[in-house]
């Protein structure tokens, strides 16, 4: 606005007062100088506008950079906090496991063993020492007897599933196989030897030496579900 006001004043001076004072020739010269001055002022105004526009762009770029820096800082802080929480949870889990006492039961002597008594002891061991959610249901049955050179082995199977109201018949089950071994050469008063293995796994677990984990059952069922979904008929 100040620039336009200055131009108007110059035009007024050149066309009125100067013509009256100096005459036509001098007035023409004054008009030429005024025109040059107007062009210079116009160029200066355009330059100032460009500089102001560039300054505005620079400020916007700085604001965008600041926003990007704030976002990166926030993401970094969240990552660090999440890592610290996970580390603390892992340490707490280790402490709980270190304080955990692995349970066991008093197994019967070899001389008192029967197939049904063996199944009952397996159920007793599961109910008293294993920790799992109440939604899990299981049932056990006797599979076979195996005769070895120095002992007899009795094989049992315990099936696990989580039936629901919508699906009372589960799509998949997880099996744990128990083996009771009766020695032919050891004193009959010694307790029976028991160990178990997970379905699709040959690692041997022994009561009183390992802690049962509910995750074992979940992993078995999940792997079966994935396999069934991958099969198309």
UniProtKB/TrEMBL annotation:
Endpoints of the signal sequence: 1-17
Domain of life where this protein originates: Eukaryota
Listed InterPro entries: AKAP (IPR053084), AKAP_28 (IPR025663)
UniProtKB keywords: Signal
GO cellular component, one term: cAMP-dependent protein kinase complex
GO molecular function annotations of the record: protein kinase A regulatory subunit binding
UniProt protein name: A-kinase anchor protein 14 isoform X1
């Amino acid at each position: 606005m100040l620039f336009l006001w200055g131009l108007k004043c110059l035009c007024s001076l050149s066309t009125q007062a100067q013509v009256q004072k100096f005459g036509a020739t001098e007035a023409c010269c004054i008009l030429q100088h005024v025109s040059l001055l107007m062009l210079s002022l116009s160029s200066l105004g355009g330059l100032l506008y460009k500089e102001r526009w560039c300054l505005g762009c620079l400020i916007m770029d700085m604001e965008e950079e600041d926003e990007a820096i704030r976002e990166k800082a926030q993401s970094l802080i969240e990552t660090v906090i999440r890592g610290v929480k996970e580390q603390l949870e892992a340490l707490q889990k280790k402490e709980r496991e270190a304080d955990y006492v692995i349970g066991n039961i008093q197994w019967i002597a070899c001389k008192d063993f029967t197939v049904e008594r063996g199944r009952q002891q397996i159920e007793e061991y599961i109910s008293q020492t294993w920790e799992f959610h109440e939604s899990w249901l299981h049932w056990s049955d006797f599979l076979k007897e195996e005769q070895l050179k120095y002992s007899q082995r009795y094989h049992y199977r315990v099936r696990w599933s989580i039936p629901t109201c919508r699906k009372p018949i589960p799509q998949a089950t997880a099996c744990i196989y128990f083996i009771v071994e009766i020695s032919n050469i050891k004193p009959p008063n010694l307790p029976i030897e028991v160990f178990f293995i997970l379905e699709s796994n040959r690692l041997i677990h022994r009561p009183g030496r390992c802690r049962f984990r509910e995750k074992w059952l979940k992993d078995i069922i999940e792997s079966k579900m994935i396999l069934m979904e991958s099969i198309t008929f």
